[in-house]
Amino acid sequence: MYTPPYKGNYLQTLVAQCRLLRSDVSFLAYIQSVFLEMSSKAFLFYHAYCLADHNSKQSNEHFMISAEEKSTINSFLAKLGITDADSHIIMYWTELIKQQQLNSNSRFASFPLKSIRLDYRICSKFSSNPS
Q: Which of 19, 86, 99, 131 lies 20 to 30 Å from 58, alpha-carbon distance?
C-alpha cells in the first residue's frame, strides 16, 4: 500500500512534541489537546458549512463533489487554519459526526438538523455596581 507523503501540521507537531515532553502523562495530555482542537474544528465545519442553507443538498459521500465545491471547502477550512493533508482528517471526522447525528436522529424522529448561528455582537462589560 502506497500513500502520498503527509503535508500537514497536526502529525508533525505530535512527533516534534514527543521528543520534547519527558513523561508519558504530559505527552498523552498534549495528544488529547491536539485531538480536542481537531474535533472542535470538525464540529465547527460540520455545523457552519455542511448544515448551512447553501449546502442543503443531501450527499452521503464527500468523495462525489465537484471541483468548485472542493475549492470552496478548502477555502473554508483554510479560514479555520486547516490546510493540506489535515483537511482530509477533518473531513473524515466531519463524516463521523454526520453519521452520529443521522443515527441519533433516526432513533427519535426525522427532525432536520439545525446549523449553529454565530453572533458577532460586541459583549458589554458586566458591572456589579448599579449606576
A: 86
User: What's the mean pLDDT in 42-61?
Assistant: 70
Do residues 8 and 83 lie in contact, with contact meaning Cβ atoms separated by under 8 Å?
A: yes
Burial of 32 (0-12, 13-18, 19+ CB in 10 A): exposed
Specify whether the CB–CB gap between 37 and 29 falls below 8 A: no
> Which residue did the predictor score with more confidence, 90 or 67?
90
pLDDT-derived band of residue 58, with 50, 70 and 90 as boundaries?
very low
Q: Is-contact 53 116, C-beta < 8 A? A: no
Tell whether the torsion through CA atoms of 123, 48, 67 and 37 is positive or negative: positive
Q: What integer pLDDT is reported at residue 41 of this predicted model?
A: 92
In the numeric block, the cell 513523561 is attached to 23
Nearest to 114 by CA among 46, 40, 51: 51
Question: Which residue from 45, 36, 103, 32 is spatially nearest to 74, judged by alpha carbons?
Answer: 45
> Average pLDDT, stretch 25-38?
89
CA 57 to chain centre: 20
Location of C-alpha cell 446549523 = 115
